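Late entry, written up from scratch paper. The run itself happened at the end of the previous shift, but nothing got recorded in the book at the time, so transcribing now.
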Amino acid sequence: MAGTSKRPCSPCSPCSPCSPCSPQPSSPRPSSCEMFGYVGIEAVLDQLKIKAMKTGFEFNIMVVGRSGLGKSTMVNTLFKSKVWKSSPVNKLGPLPQTLQLQSVTHTIEEKGVKLKLTVTDTPGFGDQINNDKCWDPILNYINDQYERYLQEEVLITRQHHIPDTRVHICVYFVPPTGHCLRPLDIEFLKRLCRVVNVVPVIARADSLTLEEREAFRWQIQEDLKNNGIFVYPQKCFDEDTNDKTLNDKIREKIPFAVVGADREHMVNGKCVLGRKTKWGIIEVENMAHCEFPLLRDLLIRSHMQDLKDITHNVHYENYRVHRLNESHLLTKGAGWVTLSPPTRRTSAGTSRSQRWNREDTESGC
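Output as recorded:
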């Protein structure tokens, strides 16, 4: 019919980005369709909820820091249960000569939701006189979990559900010196942030005044920025304006100044978690006393799924691409795929994580 055909774009001049004739994406955008009756699409949310309630969730957290910073107590405070029993310090006995990682797994249930929680502690980190390469066992453990997941994933016949032992978050405990990050902290965090999500915290923050706490936080932020250390949440992962607004507030407060306690005390007729001193009760969930609620909300209430998504889509993907590039897949019969033994990567090579780190530096992330 005359008048219905569209005039083609003129090839004589390049199209502007906002022009109607600008290149279109390869996949067509779905057009909205006006509904004239109830269908029940939102019921899929109930289906997902029911399925998730049946299968439960997995969350793996690693705590790193020197002895005596309250790592075990902090984990117990986060989940309000005896997740980890701290071992008594033998002041007379010799310190362990090597770093020994210890993991414990518990199933926690709250209001019908099951969480399989795995906590990995790193006793002995930074306790030696010579701490050269003391981070190697930690980085090797993280990569070993990626390798275990990859070995299950490349099988032609694989499990319906691959057990996820990958570390989703590493909480790094900074000693409350009030000055700056130690060279050990900087060197370790440079390597750690390339392979796992990292959230630094100021341990035992009740030993600092409010002014000392803010000055220490500012100095740590400067040390992280000047050394190219990107802690969670990174700006490049903000998906929309709401994410950016929320994460900007979090980034301003990192590292969180935290205090751990697993005992309740009576304060104004209420039972509160806190530490009792001769000056009074330090309430761990009181923002006027410490920033533990911010850490809890980040790890559990607002960003737990995002931590797992970034672990899978970024850090594990970096490892997977690296391993598949360095190995030739050799098929040996039905259901078997062989990968060459992994090389120990104590520092990341040229990988996607380094590329987005460089992009972040250029964009001011």
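The chain has one domain: 43-89+96-125+132-326.
(Scratch paper discarded after transcription.)
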